[in-house]
Amino acid sequence: MLRFSAFDEANSRNNPEIDFISHKVSDYYAQNVFTDDKLKNYVSNKVYKQLKECVSNNQKIDRETAEHIAQGMKNWAIEHGAKSYTHWFQPLTGLTAEKHDSFFEPTENGKAIESFGASNLVQQEPDASSFPNGGIRQTFEARGYTAWDPTSPAFLMDSKFGKTLCIPTIFISYTGETLDFKAPLLKSIEALEKAVLPVVNYFDKAATKITATLGWEQEYFLVDEALYNARPDLRYTGRTLLGAIPAKGQQLEDHYFGAIPDRALNFMIDLERESHILGIPIRTRHNEVAPCQFECAPMFEECNVAVDHNQLLMDVMEKIGKKHKLKVLLHEKPFKGVNGSGKHNNWSMSTDTGKNLLSPGKTPKTNLLFLTTFVNVIAAVAKYSDVLRAAIASAGNDHRLGANEAPPAIISVFIGKALTHVLNDVAEKVSDTKSNQLLTEDLKLHIHNQIPDILLDNTDRNRTSPFAFTGNKFEIRATGSSANCSSTMVVINTIVADQFLRFKTDVEALIAKEGEKKEGAIMRVLKNYIIESQNILFEGDNYSQEWADEAEKRGLKNVRTTPYALDFWMVKENVDVFARHGVLSEREMEARYDIFNHNYLLKVQIEGRLIGELCVNNIIPAAIQYQNNILDNILKMKSAGFDTSMYKAQSELVVDLSNHLAQVKSNVDAMIEARKVCNKIEENAPKAKAYCDQVVPFFDKIRYHADKLEQLVDNQLWPLPKYREILSL
Ligand code: ADP
Ligand code: MG
């Protein structure tokens, strides 16, 4: 049986040889990246300066400059063994995509040259029809364009077929609408900078640039390739649709920060090395709560580059996994009853004068900048929490949010005792009338002294909160492990940008109308925001039922499933905020709404089909075979003259098996009927809701009985690798 041969294969693996001691990381770090330093060696000083100026002013790069850069990039790539190049982009499938072209070009004299110019660098034309477009693409304009993103460095991807120069690009339709995760991210970063800089200039006149920073933490599972291949559900849906919880599982919680198994460690070291070559600054590695679950996290970077690096890391993980005969599971909930995986997004903003805007200062004056940023972020989340909820919605994440292990579907913000105290002080003590001179001194805003060092060290926190302040950044913990970080980042950047604009308008209105001093105006406006966003703050246990009840009283939304959370995209206020900042137009929002509903629908449709197939083709036959074995035994006992009481247990087993078999069968049949009804619906959004309400509830019902059968049937006859086998490395 495949299950047993797979198990044997998994247990006879030898770790592949990896090179991890011969060099220092600094010797090969970013070796395959066309970094600024390398660019300088391949183009003139003038071209380099021109490029940097365009990038920092968000200006278009002229043709001539692009031509020089293309030549430099090509020369570097070819010198390092690349034969082809690709525009690397992030379509709304959630994966990365590539369109490869060769550098080589035949010439008239029958020879060939390596050619690559500005036109190849700047723009390409992949077939947009093979990527989701949400109705934006008409058949007569199937074309889509990828366009170079000069803010993220090109890199060389190594494979057994040779090296390829990868150029990070955005992906847009023929008519200019964005079809990817990167274009809106770049726009949101620009919007954030535009809105935040003037406010920062109140406090720091020298600052000329604001950078959004992101440090993600990626959780994942590792399972053996052979066992993975023996589980069709893992292969086709990324999660186990069936499977009983093992006797020794997570209950012991001895895995967290425990010793990393050799095989996993070997994989991690290899992954880190490959990541470092690609300039991904991975730093930490450790076990997670669940068996076979791990995490890696880099040093934080500028938001756009960090997003690219996370997408790249997910690709690299798969590649390195192959070498180690391991499958990397990025699904949010691969195993029932075992902790799921998330992708924490640590977010902040910094200035080109070296300040982290969310780092509490040492003096009351510098604290005012911190307080301004802090309160505005909270106010933004309070106002637009539903868009954040929409951004983290996916079929996979539905299993996490709301289960008692990951943040709930209710968005709230945790800030800790010390800062709660500070905010309460401001809300109580700042007066509503003019002149609050020396206010920051009066209020003793020595925030730095009030926050315990332990919090600044980033070790103390409320791990149940979806949006937690962790000393000098906010940690958004509800993003799914397979998601593109951009989906969360676009939202946070945009809503914070919007909030900062509002803040500036409010402060300046007070100054103009009442002749209020700037500091006084700032404090009064912040006070209002604190009062207005009080509802979003929560310090307690987010997993508890009390919180769900309390949140309801506060009017916070608790939407547990994707198709309903996605509806938040189309709320007028939300459409307006993205449009106002030029991040996404209404049409682009509609397209995304449609695509994300479609993605959800496809996922649960495939899951439904597979559950049915597994039950009918694998589970039911195994149960029947076992039942027949027992019946044979009963007949033999009978003919040997034993009393019925002697095979009572066997008879009971036969009945139990029959009952669960009947339940599996009838629920699978009913699910198929429900699917037929849903499939008649044409539009994606209502169809997704129908699947969610009518089909998905069968998954658990079927699983309950199938898992009971797993626990009853003779181990030797059970066809699918069991949890205890998959979850052992
Ligand atoms: P955890 O305790 O949540 O596992 P980690 O130390 O693993 O914390 O991760 C913290 C993450 O926060 C790292 O990826 C780190 O780079 C990131 N980080 C630290 N400072 C900032 C900042 N100013 N902006 C964005 N991310 C940051
Ligand atoms: Mg974390």
Would you give an account of this structure?
There is one protein chain. By secondary structure, the chain is of the alpha+beta class. The protein folds into 3 domains: 148 residues, Glutamine synthetase, N-terminal domain (Ubiquitin-like (UB roll)); 385 residues, Glutamine synthetase/guanido kinase, catalytic domain (Creatine Kinase, Chain A, domain 2, 2-Layer Sandwich), CATH 3.30.590.10; 128 residues, Four Helix Bundle (Hemerythrin (Met), subunit A). The chain is 50% helix and 13% strand. Strands 9, 10, 11, 12, 13, 14, 15, 16 and 17 form a 9-stranded mixed beta sheet that branches. Strand 16 and strand 17 form a beta hairpin. Helix 7 runs parallel beside helix 17, helix 12 crosses helix 17 and helix 12 packs parallel to helix 18. The longest helix is centred in the last third of the chain and has 54 residues. The chain starts with a helix and ends with a helix. It binds adenosine-5'-diphosphate and magnesium ion. The site of adenosine-5'-diphosphate has 17 residues, from strand 9, strand 11 and strand 14.
